[in-house]
Amino acid sequence: MLIKKKLGFWLFLRASLLACCLFVLVNYAISFATVYQFSRPSPLTQADAAIVLGAAAWDKRPSPVFRERINHALNLYRSGLVKKILFTGGSPKTGFMSEAAVARRYAINHGIDKEDIIYENQSRDTWQNLVNAQIEAGNNDIKTVIIVSDPYHLARAKLMAHDLGLDAQVSPTPTSRYTATYSKLRFLAQESYLLMIYQWTQFIRSPKIRSVFQLFFPVHDQA
User: Fold this and answer.
1) Distance of CA 65 to the CA centre of its chain
2) Model confidence over 46-103: pLDDT tens digits?
3) Could you give phi then psi for residue 172, rounded to 5 degrees?
């Protein structure tokens, strides 16, 4: 009897591990397909502003990745699809220009009217980029936006924008530093993983899940 119980336990444990692995693999495959889908260009309608997600800046120069994002936003502005450009991104080190300030300087040097440029220089990641951009959009009567970034970055950015209540389209850069097959696959794999983790995190934080969790693990206020 004891042997049968132990055998049953190990069979249950193995089945549970296999089910968990299958769940993760299916979720990852869905995220992979979603990231790839959003990387493809789609028709755009006119919006109030383009939000350029921050990337590395080297002193006063945008990195090649950041430069491509900026150039794409400039093209959207020149084509009349957006009326303003909103740059995001803080400073990696004290005393250095913020990513957004570098982008603003680059845009002005390329003929963009500084009155049509908005920027925030505090954010450190994609979520903060969009949170701060939303604040600046509200302060400048911007209702609709087009988010600009590298192709494989946009699925996660689009989902975050949706969660924040932004009326956002996305537009991938037509050119990118991620051109080598290995670099593209690594970036695709990384963004698929990050998208999956973000979705899980949002699911766990949802009010319904939190209420169910509190049923089993009630939190009592300390007097």
Assistant:
1) 15
2) 999 999 999 999 888 999 999 999 999 999 999 999 999 999 999 877 778 999 999 9
3) -75, 150
Question: Cβ–Cβ contacts within 10 Å for residue 194, how many?
Answer: 17
Name the phi and psi angles at 145, rounded to 5.
-140, 160
Q: Tell me, what's the pLDDT at 29? A: 96
Tokens of 7: 């055998």
Both tokens assigned to 131: 């949170």
What span, in angstroms and rounded, lies between the C-alpha atoms of 38 and 17? 32
DSSP code per residue over 70-132 = HHHHHHHHHTTSEEEEEE----SSTTSPPHHHHHHHHHHHTT--GGGEEE-----SHHHHHHH
Give first-to-last CA distance, the chain, whole Å: 50
Burial, 151: exposed, middle or buried (Cβ in 10 Å; 0-12, 13-18, 19+)?
buried
Beta carbons within 8 Å of 28's beta carbon, 6+ residues apart: 192, 193, 196
